[in-house]
Amino acid sequence: MKNTKDKSRQGLTKQHSVNAMMKPSIAWALVGMQFGALAALVVFPAGTWWDRGPLSGTIALILVAVGLVVVVVAGAQLGRSLTPSPIPREEGTLVTTGIYSQVRHPIYTALLVAALGGVVWGGSLAHVIAWFFLFAVLSAKVAGEESLLREKFEDYAAYSTTTGRFFPKPSTRNASD
């Protein structure tokens, strides 16, 4: 784990680290909406947009399994920095190695992939809407979280220019390299 310089240890107080955009009440509301959207994907009745046969079941299972594996791996790599809240832990470190060397928010990406499995299996407009709602909630979490990470870690701005938010950035290396 790479632990970059933590600005909060250089005189920023907890008061400064929780900016106006991401108060704890907003952060936890977003967490609740995130889990609500995921639950909706599970409990919404199945639709008839496409056949829910063996092919869609297999695709859905693969998407959910891949998503869950990435959540576990990324969570393990975060270690004690892991929190469901978009407000970074005071004692947290900036992890830029492992899966985080490719994507800044692999857990959110993995949740979207697993949720897409729910859409494939659900086959209804309600499932599609729930997935887009989840994407909007996670995007809002990321906006606040990244603002706080920039305040907390001086290396975060550089990290964010070289590492994709939800997906790896295309390589800028020359093909002959």
Q: Which features characterize this protein?
A:
disordered C terminus; mainly alpha
Structure description:
The chain has 177 residues and is an all-alpha fold. It has a domain at 52-81 and 93-165. Helices cover 57% and strands 0% of the residues. The chain is built from 6 helices and no strands. Helix 2 (24-43) runs antiparallel to helix 5 (125-152), helix 3 packs antiparallel against helix 4 (106-122) and helix 4 packs antiparallel against helix 5 (125-152). The longest helix is centred in the C-terminal third of the chain and has 28 residues, at 125-152. The two termini are 28 Å apart. 28% of the residues are buried.
Short description:
The chain is mostly helical and 177 residues long.
Rg? 18 Å
Provide mean pLDDT, rounded: 87
**Overall 3D geometry?**
globular
Give the topology string: H per helix, E per strand. Answer: HHHHHH
What is the count of DSSP helices, taking H or I runs of 4+ residues? 6
Strand content: under 5%
Alpha-carbon distance between the termini?
28 Å
Main sheet specs: none
Low-confidence stretches: 5-18, 173-177
Structural class: mainly alpha
**What's the helical proportion of residues?**
55-70%
Number of strands: 0
How does the SSE layout of this entry go?
Layout: H1 14-17, H2 24-43, H3 54-78, H4 106-122, H5 125-152, H6 156-162
